């Protein structure tokens, strides 16, 4: 008997039990829909994080003090004073693969203007910070090298600070605000960037010459960090090696001595976050995939019931010439049709769920073609695997005994 006739028989048999067929599909529909939605959330999160990191500068390198031990106890980088302005100067003059570099120091406190105040930080940087972090000034100007050299009392505010210090919407340029007891003239406002994937407000900051923060706010002679960017992303590792060599020479570290500084790149951060995100995606998909397994068991259960109900039919078909292979193929086709149809509906349901997540929850979601194809293939395999036993059972029936079955 050809496949076309077997397909017609299978479709007719399924049509005779529409409700039972739909309920059998339901496990597959829910399973596939859940897998599609979970993979979409995971992929969307990963893509969003990569985009955020790319905006921050995928070739950015961060240098922190610390990583040595005192009295057998590893110190926090906040307790270390191993980065000095001389280290920054050495990197500026000796490193050949650094495109931009800035010292970083910060102080937490209250920003005050008139009757308004807001708790935030004064981030001390130099003029190359904007290029490293890929930011720009929306209004006014950024401070100059002269301002940095003279520890000028100037600042550039983020949009969040402007909204809180100037709630009436007045122009902040030229106004004198206070950070603690230090008066600073607002010379610019940064372009708005909003929240990043980690929920951090990227506009809740104020940029001040690092020398101003060191001398007038913190009274320190060391740096809390250094940020740099490689000439291009491909040279990031080379730049890290170059920075390491220069700083080890500056700190007079001998071979075998542990670095008393820590270097991190955005590539490392991206790989770490991507790895974590992938692991969580797989975990979520595996949990959702349990529904597929349950759906497959449901298909097997219904097909066994169907074989039992149609025992006489199977016996009659065998008595007029149908082979065991024909019977097996027919029941396999029925199982695959149930599974694949449920899978297609599940894919549509997963896409709809993903759209609803984007629309109402505003989560980053990406439905990839690979997840759709994978789900379709898994449904086909489930139909074959869980339909095989009932089909084999049907094909092995004795025609005479089958005809006598009541």
Description:
The protein is of the alpha+beta class and 406 residues long. It has 2 domains: 3-52 and 272-404, no CATH class; 83-259, no CATH class. It has helices at 3-15, 18-57, 85-94, 129-133, 145-149, 159-165, 210-218, 236-250, 266-309, 311-319, 324-361, 369-395, 399-404, and strands at residues 60-65, 69-70, 73-74, 98-113, 116-125, 137-140, 154-157, 176-179, 182-190, 206-209, 225-230, 261-265. Strands 4-5-10-7-9-8 form a 6-stranded mixed barrel. Helix 2 packs across helix 11. The protein is elongated, with a radius of gyration of 33 Å.
Comma- or semicolon-separated keywords:
6-stranded mixed β-barrel; 2 domains; 13 helices; alpha+beta; single chain; two-stranded antiparallel ribbon; 406 residues; 12 strands
What's the topology here?
Elements: H1 3-15, H2 18-57, E1 60-65, E2 69-70, E3 73-74, H3 85-94, E4 98-113, E5 116-125, H4 129-133, E6 137-140, H5 145-149, E7 154-157, H6 159-165, E8 176-179, E9 182-190, E10 206-209, H7 210-218, E11 225-230, H8 236-250, E12 261-265, H9 266-309, H10 311-319, H11 324-361, H12 369-395, H13 399-404
Helix pairs in contact: 1-11, 2-9, 2-11, 2-12, 3-8, 9-11, 9-12, 11-12
């Amino acid at each position: 008997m050809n496949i076309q006739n077997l397909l017609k028989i299978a479709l007719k048999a399924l049509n005779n039990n529409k409700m039972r067929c739909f309920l059998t599909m339901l496990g597959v529909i829910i399973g596939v829909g859940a897998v599609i939605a979970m993979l979409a959330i995971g992929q969307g999160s990963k893509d969003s994080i990569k985009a955020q990191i790319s905006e921050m500068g995928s070739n950015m390198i961060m240098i922190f003090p610390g990583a040595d031990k005192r009295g057998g106890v590893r110190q926090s980088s906040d307790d270390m004073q191993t980065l000095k302005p001389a280290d920054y100067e050495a990197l500026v003059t000796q490193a050949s693969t650094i495109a931009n570099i800035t010292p970083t120091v910060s102080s937490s406190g209250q920003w005050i203007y008139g009757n308004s105040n807001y708790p935030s930080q004064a981030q001390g940087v130099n003029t190359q910070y904007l290029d490293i972090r890929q930011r720009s000034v929306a209004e006014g100007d950024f401070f100059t090298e002269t301002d940095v050299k003279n520890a000028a009392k100037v600042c550039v505010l983020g949009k969040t600070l402007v909204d809180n210090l100037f709630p009436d919407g007045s122009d902040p340029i030229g106004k004198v605000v206070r950070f603690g007891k230090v008066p600073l003239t607002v010379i610019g406002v940064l372009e708005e960037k909003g929240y990043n994937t980690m929920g951090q407000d990227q506009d809740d900051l104020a940029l001040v010459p690092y020398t101003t923060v060191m001398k007038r706010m913190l009274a320190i002679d060391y740096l809390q960090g250094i940020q740099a960017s490689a000439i291009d992303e491909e040279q990031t590792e080379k730049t890290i090696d170059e920075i390491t060599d220069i700083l080890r020479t500056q700190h007079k570290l001998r071979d075998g001595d542990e670095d008393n500084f820590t270097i991190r790149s955005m590539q490392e951060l991206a790989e770490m976050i991507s790895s974590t995100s992938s692991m969580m995606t797989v975990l979520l998909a595996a949990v959702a995939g349990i529904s597929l397994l349950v759906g497959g068991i449901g298909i097997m259960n219904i097909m066994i019931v169907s074989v039992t109900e149609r025992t006489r039919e199977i016996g009659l078909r065998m008595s007029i010439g149908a082979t065991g292979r024909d019977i097996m193929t027919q029941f396999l086709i029925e199982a695959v049709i149930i599974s694949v149809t449920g899978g297609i509906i599940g894919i549509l349901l997963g896409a709809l769920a993903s759209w609803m997540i984007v629309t109402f929850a505003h989560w980053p979601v990406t439905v990839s073609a690979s997840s759709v194809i994978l789900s379709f293939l898994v449904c086909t395999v489930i139909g074959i695997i869980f339909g095989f036993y009932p089909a084999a059972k049907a094909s092995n029936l004795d025609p005479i005994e089958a005809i006598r079955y009541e």
